[in-house]
Amino acid sequence: MNWALTLDLVGVFFFAISGSLLAVQRGYDIVGSLLLGSLTGLGGGVIRDLIIGVPPTAFAEPVHLAAPVAAAALVFFLTHGIERYSRPLLIFDAAGLALFCTTGTVKALEAGMNPVAAALLGVTTGVGGGLLRDVVANRDPQLFNSSDLYAVPAFIGATVVAGAWFTALPNLATVTIAAAVVFAFRVLSLRFRWRIPHAKGQPRRGRASE
Amino acid sequence: MNWALTLDLVGVFFFAISGSLLAVQRGYDIVGSLLLGSLTGLGGGVIRDLIIGVPPTAFAEPVHLAAPVAAAALVFFLTHGIERYSRPLLIFDAAGLALFCTTGTVKALEAGMNPVAAALLGVTTGVGGGLLRDVVANRDPQLFNSSDLYAVPAFIGATVVAGAWFTALPNLATVTIAAAVVFAFRVLSLRFRWRIPHAKGQPRRGRASE
Amino acid sequence: MNWALTLDLVGVFFFAISGSLLAVQRGYDIVGSLLLGSLTGLGGGVIRDLIIGVPPTAFAEPVHLAAPVAAAALVFFLTHGIERYSRPLLIFDAAGLALFCTTGTVKALEAGMNPVAAALLGVTTGVGGGLLRDVVANRDPQLFNSSDLYAVPAFIGATVVAGAWFTALPNLATVTIAAAVVFAFRVLSLRFRWRIPHAKGQPRRGRASE
């Protein structure tokens, strides 16, 4: 579907920006920025496609490669001391998460997965690229940072889309609304420092990364 | 097979406990605990199924998701300062290793792999979940800790099961005995600090993790 | 093809040496050395085969396992304080990179991928094993070290091989020449400290690892 490909490319672009920004913060050169952006943007989708059992779109449709190239170029030419700010990385990461957890669920449903597995794969697609980014950049994954809610909006978005399956095939409107909810939830949770409970008697820690 | 599914679920549960416990020790919240438990419990099996070339059971059979959910809930409600002790994590990890290296070998043999490849895949399944757990939690993998024997019992268990292939299809009794041997070997090696040799002239290091 | 298998095994051997050497430097025991060597030598090829959609050769053709075993034995018996030197690791790593980025591209082309995707998969195959090695050994990946050129020679080698596709099927001569170019480029870039530009105003950092 055309709108699915478009949303996918936009998601790859946003995640790739987050990877390239982290690369710049880490002092990587332009090639490292392209590589980390590509891994972040394309990684979640490759995992998704391998689990579904179809050829990964990143390789089957080379147009996907344009997104990380554009992202790395943009970060390279536009950043002036941007590495001192963590906000842009968080915003682009949130946009990638919103698109991938919803489109990942759609792809899984279209491949015939049951709604529970589809929602799980949507979450995996959403958090996979960022997890790979943080693991290879050797920092504590944002996913596990107890000071912010990262997986919760992904769960919500994937569940909304999988739930829409019971009424009708998810369409562009459903997916767009679900993605907007995920993005809004994520940004608001960062802005107002929403938290979730820890195990009893456990020490609380601040931001794991930065 | 029913007993194979049961052993698989028990293995997922044990590994998920180890992941959720590590998450608590690391100060992750309940969602992080569920995610790290799921990755630890389901990761080895997903790698196994991707290499065999079948749909990952974690997604094909959603009952697998119940195990990490139960593990995260158990760890959340029962831990009182448990994060100070590393022993429970080691015991649950050993039980998961024992079950996965043996059932992983069985699945590979049933899929038509030759015994050598099946044993290798059994070891990969056994150590894969714990390796993913340690890598994403950004700690030195237990697998490479030269102060304890982690891969050796997995090799033994996988080899015993693959060897049983030459006499008859591995059955519940064979797998249970092999898993018990792996678990006993692992626990005894920890208790009595068994070691294996280093390269000549190499500095010996203590526990890499903790 | 026979020469393809031979080059593949040689590549596995070289990368496995680099993994086993790093394991010795890290104080791992002989089993850890075998495991890290296996992961480094076989990891890139497993990723390549999963993306192509064929059974990973590391499991389908057990002769591949001989290479990491030989590498771990060699490193175990021959190292006398070798862990103090980083040069041998870099040389063996460069040889593995040269072989894998070229043979990976050939395998992708033979599987019917378009040249762009094939070159990307060649780069992925070339850098994949070393990236897995550095990630599980919990060090900053060499791939992202802005003080040396690692991905650039892989891009060049994969592009040369994919370009040869337009004239004729890449053969042993093409692949050997491309691999030699990659190896020479990599070694010369280390010797003469070639660099590539950073984003504007970004702090430059020295060697990320060691």
TrEMBL record, chains A, B, C:
GO cellular component, one term: plasma membrane
InterPro entries assigned: Gly_transporter
Keywords, comma-separated and alphabetical: Cell membrane, Membrane, Transmembrane, Transmembrane helix
Pfam family, one: Gly_transporter
Protein name: TRIC cation channel family protein
Tagged with keyword Membrane: yes
Stated family: Belongs to the UPF0126 family.
Residues annotated as transmembrane: 6-24, 31-51, 63-82, 89-109, 115-136, 148-166, 172-190
Domain Glycine transporter: 6-79, 91-163
Localisation per UniProt entry: Cell membrane
Membrane topology according to the record: Multi-pass membrane protein
